[in-house]
Amino acid sequence: MNTLEVANKWRQMCQEGKNLECITELYADNVVSREMPGVPHGEVVSGKQNVFEKSKQWLEDVVEFHSSEISEPVVADNHFTSKMSFDVTFKSRGRQQMDEVCVFEVQNGKIANEQFFYTM
To answer: For the domain 3-117, what is the CATH code?
Structure first.
């Protein structure tokens, strides 16, 4: 898959709530995931299984998605970006509205790097 195909598949799977399946299918074995400084589950996580577990923990903390929106990806060479907005109730911290910008790098048809920008 090229970068646009990966980006569109990523968006589709996330919109369908298939976040963990997305990691299994679209992520490279050696993927690196970067979060904002100070996040409880680690700022940098490496390896597909570790990124899977990080995402699983985040999803397990969700009580309810009140709304969510994922923008059309914007592609530049082997990178794509998308804006995600959520209104979510978490077990650990109650209801929050979140806006974040996600940046991905695709190598050999797989997501090799992801980085998230948001305020906490």
So the answer is: 3.10.450.50
The H or E element containing residue 54 is helix 48-60
Strands (E), 41-93: 44-46, 62-70, 74-76, 79-90
Residue 116 phi/psi, 5° resolution?
-120, 135
Whole-structure pTM value = 0.92
Q: Could you report the per-residue pLDDT of 69-115, keeping only the tens digit for each?
A: 999 999 999 999 999 999 999 999 999 999 999 999 999 999 999 99
pLDDT at 86: 93
Q: What is the phi/psi pair of residue 74, to 5°?
A: -110, 125
Query: Dihedral (C-alpha) 71, 104, 79, 100: value to the nearest 10 degrees?
Result: 40
* Cβ–Cβ < 8 Å for 110, 6: yes
